[in-house]
Design a protein that fits this description.
The protein is an all-alpha fold and 226 residues long. The chain contains nine helices and no strands.
């Protein structure tokens, strides 16, 4: 929780560096709180039909946007890159994956153009041994699976959620992008047996995602999610 609060306290700090621990601890909690806000909107039927989500989710997203952006810039600085590098996310399909890889990279060991090595790097940079890397990648893949299950349940309980055309094409783009993400993570697992298992799982995930995408087109439906 301290890393989450630290990001908000430094919401206007677009200088300096941020380690992987600082970035990903914020990301995990930020995602959890965003899902909680979104779920409350659904439970209390506060969602706007034209948007697909409600005021709680909107308010939380707006509150976390600047702290998250500043933290992302500092994370790029830690790898020796300019903050403007975040704009690669605008590159269709590959941009988001490229940016994700940069956020996963180990920071520079020594002082770089953006300052000294973050104080909390000693916590983050223990992620160098094979076992720890495998655990982290496995958790990421498990999170993707749970995310898939969560959204499948949501779209079946609230059938009218994805009715607007804007959400339809947005979901299609996100689905096309994220269907490759598990495979990229699987390739990074050093243990050969686990790598094979996760590659098989990732291929099945890609096939299922592609099936959903095609089915949505054939049925002219937007009721799906990556």
């Amino acid at each position: 929780m301290k890393w989450y609060l630290h990001a908000f306290k430094n919401f206007a700090n677009f200088c300096g560096r941020a380690s992987r621990t600082e970035y990903w601890m914020f990301y995990v909690l930020n995602t959890a709180f965003a899902i909680a806000a979104y779920t409350l909107d659904l439970i209390f039927n506060l969602t706007f039909e034209s948007l697909g989500f409600g005021p709680l989710y909107i308010l939380y997203t707006l509150a976390a946007f600047v702290p998250g952006l500043a933290l992302s810039v500092r994370r790029l600085h830690d790898t020796g890159r300019k903050g403007s590098f975040i704009l690669i996310v605008l590159l269709p399909f590959l941009g988001a994956i490229w940016l994700l890889i940069l956020f996963l990279l180990k920071g520079d060991d020594d002082e770089n153009d953006y300052g000294e090595k973050p104080i909390n790097s000693e916590i983050a940079e223990f992620i160098t041994d094979t076992k720890t890397n495998t655990i982290i990648l496995s958790i990421c893949l498990f999170w993707l699976l749970m995310n898939k299950v969560f959204w499948s349940v949501v779209t079946r309980l609230w059938d009218n959620y994805y009715q607007s055309e804007s959400f339809k094409w947005l979901n299609e783009i996100i689905t096309a992008l994220w269907m490759f993400f598990p495979l990229f993570l699987s390739m990074a697992i050093p243990n050969r047996k686990l790598k094979i298992i996760f590659i098989i799982g990732s291929v099945l995930y890609m096939i299922y995602s592609f099936y959903e995408l095609v089915q949505a087109h054939l049925m002219n439906s937007s009721n799906f999610q990556f």
